[in-house]
Design brief:
The complex is a heterodimer of chains A (about 250) and B (about 160). By secondary structure, chain A is an all-alpha fold. Chain A has a single domain (about 1-245), classed as Ferritin (Up-down Bundle). Chain A is built from ten helices and no strands. In chain A, helix 6 runs antiparallel to helix 7. The longest helix of chain A is centred in the first third of the chain and has 29 residues, at about 35-60. Chain B is about 25% helix and about 25% strand. Chain B folds into two domains: about 5-90, GMP Synthetase, Chain A, domain 3 (2-Layer Sandwich); about 105-160, no CATH class. Chain B is α/β, with parallel strands linked by helices. The chains are: A mainly alpha (about 250), B alpha/beta (about 160).
Chain lengths: ~250, ~160
């Protein structure tokens, strides 16, 4: 393999989009209304498109017979390095939108920095993805406002969703060994530097939506090391079913 | 006709036969997804770029290009590139006209688009009756590149091609 750290670094970015894309895809045919159903699956499609570019690049760096599909579909749970936030299940629509919003705010900041990477492939994927991610952010922020500043019930559900998911936000800004190595080479993004502006931007939207910013300072972590919540296994069994049952299947 | 791409003029009539599988009134040249097409002996080197990362039409478009050139007696080598990233500015005027006639409102410029999608201004023209008294129904439509609008005069729903810059 040409660069183990680069390979790991790419998976660190791509796995977030894959797992969140799968979660949003689960709403296909199950969204609360036709329009939101289509919106969620459109977001899923964008994320999967980005993921393909990342995994194709990772497969090239791996330099063996691995394909983008092998990397996406045939790893074990502990080998996925997505943050815990994105694997949290769709409980109600407020929760789904809160998860999307908390990720979108990070995703956009991250991509804007990745665009400056001296790795031309990563920079190109970032440039393409920024346009899509900013659209996602507009959509999810809008729902934070509508539900937060909506009826008594929608406000309560959105506040509960934000409170419940807040504990997963800090992990977005943790650095892995691969991250540090890639930052040093001018390839990767120093996520620790995004933290302040992230909480500021998120705080502004929450306040505008009459929601309270959670005060808890206790945060969950582990996803970036492959230690996941109980929800990921179920998601993967769904995601990987066809590939595991009919190896090498094609349409 | 094609200002932002580098395409050998003799190849244009062949590429012009290939249309976007999801918006059949648009050729891929009108759409601006062909960035380069160069003849090298009997081999055509084609460079295409996706509209959206996850656009499922790209694979079909690549197959259709190969088929069209095969029919004309050429071999093809197709490469997919991400930079420079596709923008709706590359949709030709012919393409914009065709979109409107087909019932999809063509993309506005970036500022107007933002106003339209945030509901600040009523500027997207109904493709059925031409009224600007229209309303955003959903930021996401039937494909990744469209949003859903409704005309408040004639009550018809219609797609709006989102501006991507």
């Amino acid at each position: 393999m040409k660069s183990k750290n680069l390979y790991k670094y790419i998976l660190g970015i791509a796995d977030n989009s894959l797992i969140l894309g799968q979660r949003m895809g689960e709403l296909c045919g199950h969204g609360p209304s036709l329009e939101t159903d289509i919106a969620c699956t459109n977001i899923s499609l964008d994320l999967f498109g980005q993921v393909r570019s990342y995994y194709q690049y990772a497969a090239k760096i791996a330099g063996d017979n691995r394909t983008e599909d092998d990397i996406a579909m045939l790893r074990k749970e502990r080998e996925y390095v997505n943050v815990l936030l994105v694997e949290q299940p769709n409980t109600n629509f407020a929760y789904t939108m809160a998860r999307q919003f908390l990720f979108d705010a990070y995703h956009l900041l991250f991509l804007q920095e990745l665009e400056k990477s001296n790795d031309l492939t990563l920079s190109a994927i970032a440039t393409k993805s920024i346009k899509e991610a900013s659209y996602h952010q507009r959509f999810s922020s809008d729902w934070i406002k509508r539900l937060g500043d909506g009826t008594e019930e929608s406000h309560q559900k959105m506040q509960e969703a934000i409170n419940g998911l807040w504990t997963y936000t800090d992990e977005l800004f943790h650095q892995t060994e691969a991250d540090k190595a890639m930052v040093e080479q001018g390839v990767g993004v120093d996520v620790t530097k995004l933290k302040e502006v992230y909480y500021k931007q998120v705080g502004q939207i929450l306040e505008g939506a009459t929601l309270e910013i959670p005060e808890s300072k206790w945060f969950q972590k582990g996803g970036k090391q492959g230690i996941h919540t109980e929800h990921l296994g179920y998601l993967l069994s769904d995601l990987q079913y066809m590939q595991r049952t009919y190896p090498n299947m094609s349409w | 006709m094609i200002e932002h791409a580098d395409i050998d003029s003799e190849l244009i009539p062949i590429l012009d036969q290939v249309s976007d599988p999801e918006i059949p009134v648009l050729t891929i040249l009108d759409m601006g997804v062909v960035r380069q097409a160069k003849l090298d002996g009997d081999l055509v080197q084609v460079v295409i770029t996706p509209t959206y990362s996850g656009c499922p039409a790209m694979d079909v478009i690549a197959d259709d290009i190969t088929a069209a050139f095969n029919k004309a007696g050429y071999k093809t080598n197709i490469e997919l590139v991400l930079t420079p990233a596709w923008t709706t500015d590359w949709i030709s005027q012919e393409g914009r006209n065709a979109l409107e006639k087909y019932g999809i409102a063509p993309p506005l410029d970036a500022d107007a688009d933002k106003d339209a999608l945030l509901g600040n201004k009523k500027i997207v023209k109904c493709t059925n009756c031409g009224s600007q008294n229209t309303k955003l129904v959903s930021q996401f439509g039937s494909t990744a590149c469209k949003a859903l609008f409704k005309c408040e005069d004639c009550q018809e729903p219609f797609d709006y091609f989102k501006c991507l810059k």
